[in-house]
Design brief:
The protein is an alpha/beta fold and 326 residues long. The chain is 39% helix and 14% strand. It is built from 14 helices and 12 strands. Strand 3, helix 3 and strand 4 form a beta-alpha-beta unit. Helix 1 packs parallel to helix 13 and helix 5 crosses helix 7. The radius of gyration is 22 Å and the shape is globular. The relative contact order is 0.14.
């Protein structure tokens, strides 16, 4: 029976299927030393990893029999893809199924920041609410506001459609134009700088790569409207947390809603002490239905790879390699 490593527990249904078909070992059940666990199980045929697990070249080379890494996330910047390709280890991810849940979460962040929901909740819970007040926690209306989407992929589009229902005007920046979407929904493609300068709300929907590290830095934050809202439910390293905290501390931005962080799970201490931030613990895909679907996709990927089949949800780099194969 082939050996599969699951780094952390997830859907019990998926775990039951894995136990039925493979010799399953769950690393986190043995303690927090995941790299040490992997070294002790160097004969594993398959690995199901989480986005929080750094699967570097040393880990990949140490797993001599490894055929597949199934990442329990749509992103996979935690994996050394060059090493995986070099060692002929397939890599899959979980695209598409978390689109709606993540877009819902993005809209929740927009609403929470714009209407100061977290501040209001704390105000009530601490007994300070003594009655209606004309100037109590005044927020920003969404109708008529400009939402700037950075990255008009599946999640960006799903967020844009939700915003449209709130009466917002959507502009977007993307490497490729989306003329069909522009015609159908009235979205406008603009340059990066045009978006940054004009948007009332800026929402990130890009995958992470070294080329976009700190895309939002001190200079970019300085170009945003003074009362703009910044939303990041994509990847933490896309932003310079220190620069963002500095702007928010000076009340030079209305607020920020974050679901991801640069050094996750660590969060910039300055952000934690600001009232105009909403900070969530990476909940983008956190619905029971979505997380179950993601788990089942990893089971399918491992099953296919270890049966000698081509996994359905290979990452783009692997698809490109197979496309080029004679």
């Amino acid at each position: 029976m082939k050996k599969v490593i699951l780094t952390h527990r997830y859907s019990e249904e998926a775990i039951s299927l894995l136990r039925r078909e493979f010799q399953l070992h769950i690393a986190a059940d043995q303690g927090p030393d995941i790299p040490g666990f992997l070294r002790r199980h160097a004969d594993a045929d398959g690995l199901i990893s989480f986005l929080s697990d750094p699967i570097d070249g040393a880990v990949i080379k140490g797993l001599k029999k490894l055929k597949i890494i199934a990442n329990f996330a749509v992103g996979y910047n935690n994996i050394d893809i060059g090493s995986a390709l070099e060692n002929n280890v397939l890599v899959t991810h979980t695209p598409d199924v978390l689109t709606e849940a993540t877009a819902d979460l993005t809209m929740a962040l927009i609403l929470a920041v714009a209407r100061r929901l977290v501040e209001g909740d704390a105000f009530v819970r601490t007994g300070r609410f003594t009655g209606w007040g004309a100037n109590l926690f005044l927020g920003k209306e969404l109708r008529g506001a400009i939402l700037g989407i950075i990255g008009m992929g599946r999640i960006g589009l799903a967020t844009a459609l939700r915003a449209r229902a709130f009466g917002m005007k959507v502009v977007y920046y993307s490497r490729s134009a989306k003329p069909a979407l522009e015609k159908k929904y009235g979205f406008a493609r603009v340059t990066f700088l045009e978006l940054i300068r004009s948007a009332d709300i800026v929402s990130l929907h890009l995958p992470y790569s070294p080329g976009v590290h700190h895309l939002f830095n001190q200079d970019v934050f300085a170009l945003m409207k003074k009362d703009a809202i910044f939303i990041n439910a994509a990847r933490g390293p896309l932003m310079d947390e220190e620069a963002l905290a500095e702007k928010l501390a000076k009340n030079e931005r209305f607020g920020a809603g974050l679901d991801v962080y640069e050094g996750e799970p660590a969060v910039n201490k300055k952000l934690k002490h600001l009232k105009n931030t909403v900070l969530l613990p990476h909940l983008g895909s956190a619905t029971g239905k979505t997380r179950r679907s993601m788990a089942m996709m990893t089971v399918q990927a491992v099953r296919q790879a270890l049966n000698g089949e081509k996994p359905r949800h290979l990452i783009p780099e692997w698809k490109e390699r197979l496309r080029k194969k004679p």
